[in-house]
Known about the structure:
The chain is an alpha+beta fold. Helices cover about 40% and strands about 40% of the residues.
Amino acid sequence: MKETPVNKIMENTLEKMREMVDVSTIIGEPMVTGDTTLIPVSKVTYGFTGGGTDLPSKSNAELFGGGGGGGITIAPVAFIVIQNDKVRLMQINNYTSSADRAISMIPELVDQVSQLLKAKNDDAAGKSEEKAE
């Protein structure tokens, strides 16, 4: 591929964006407070554009005009909470759909079902011990 000023503009734009956004931007550094660990989760949206043109000229073999740019939006959306060997997701923003709400409730639902099953097993074990006596 021929190296042109437009290529250089696009490469510089992409390189600067790579410097600003990496995986630690999306999944942040864990914060530990007592027995609780919080891990921030962010939504990253980005876009870029660039363009240019080479114009022949009588006085100069080539005239170049061009430019490039980009934009990034980083919005915190949730925290992963790890506490007492349980993991849950706490969303910051409002749910955008019923599906989002249902998905966010799955970890809590699993915990509740596990507790119910454990309680039933404990009750059944207690009744078995009473009958054996």
